[in-house]
Amino acid sequence: MAEKEKRRLRSQENSRATSKLFDFDYVNGLLFKNEPLYIDRAKFTNRKHQPYRYYKDLCRLPEKLAISKPTKVTKKEVVLPRRQRTKRDPLSDDVYLPFHRKMKRDEKSMTGSDKNRIANEVDNFKMQLMLLQQNTWARHLPKITYINDKSNPAELQWKRSATFAELQRLVQKYENWDQRNEQCMADIKEFESRKDSNKADSEPVEEDDSDEAIMANQYLQQEREEERLSKFGPSSRLVLHNGYDLVFGPFIHPRIEPSVS
What we know:
The protein is mainly alpha-helical.
């Protein structure tokens, strides 16, 4: 009778797919391992196979042909008449400003949460850099980078150097982004400070920015309903004489309702 296969726990299995550690086993050796770059010129020793080919006349650009008759180009400036607004715009900027301010607040909140998440990751990178500089770095390295053989000092040494360089690159990338982001925010504040407070684009602080004021505009809705009634007419009711009526209109779906009479 064959022996039963011994069961293994999932924690004892080595899984690289679910690991969040650095893995330098399948990286480009020219970038991380400083391997030499060779150029094989053996196949170019024969004269029939040259590394470069010259096509003589085929590589020359065509000569410019002389134009016998010059083309006369005339430019006519046509000024269109300026349109004069005789009616009040029902969709002015004042209608969308409260919703725009709400979207800006939501965007600022989401941006702040993303910045906090990135800052936490960078703090972890800095902590890992400090651990790699300690005397007990060999004990902390397997928690950061995937190690095949922990008893191999050569593998530990070069993976420590590769991990240290990669962490430094990520931290410098974040610091560079943080500086550019601060400069961009300063430019935005300077631009907004130059705006005229009397214009519609300004954002007064004392104005009501509640969700009810943003999503509901009863005055505009009532005005549109009056325009629809005057242009297309009201809804109609067809009596079916069986206890039900058919209600239909230009802007409603036909439906059957109990008779009102």
